Predict the structure of Protein mis12-like protein.
Amino acid sequence: MEGSESEKVFDSLNLNPKHFVNEALNIVDELVDDAFDFFHREAANLLKTEGTNRSEDLKEGVAQIKNMVQLTLDKRLSLWEKYCLHQCFKVPQGFSLPKADGPSGDTSFDINAVENPELDEKLDFLRNKISEVGKESAELNRELQALERQSMLSGHSAASLAEALELYQQLAVDEKFEELVRTASDFQTKVENLATRMVENSEHRRAKRIRTSNGEMFRLSNDGGLLSATLEELQEFGDDIKSLRD
């Protein structure tokens, strides 16, 4: 850049791109130094090397790491410096300084000298693409919002369906429980009736047996009925009566 037209233009405007780049590089160096000083202090506190033989080893290790980082950083900053001086601080072709005796409002830039139809065509193409992408993005956003609303409605429908199914299942359980209670009640009634019939049949058979075995005692004869029975027959008849009561 030295001795070029760009340098003359910046010098006339009291600007120095090289000075700007050097200031930026100095700031980076200061930041790196502060960062590794902080790193060394924290490492010493964590490893407790202060006042020990390991203090020098830690210092040398931090210095080696710093040199490795600084070497890589210097290479990248060198490329950045060249880019700034040859691209960022390069004035367009056709740029001219204002004349000392010219009017203050006179332009110092020849627009026609830097016209580039090919570049304008590319810019128009990019503008059109950006416009199309913007329209597609808006359309996609609308579709996304519609899908979100549909998903929300589907979620509400699924929740309502699950609630209805749960209510139906609860009602079905209640109906089955009531049916089970009715069945148990009917079964209990049938068991009680069966037990009653069994008792009645048992008593009927026992009474019939007594009447069969002691038929003559139940018949009243003209001779006096039970008065004509013997003592053993009366005792047996009394035992049968007690068994019927039990």
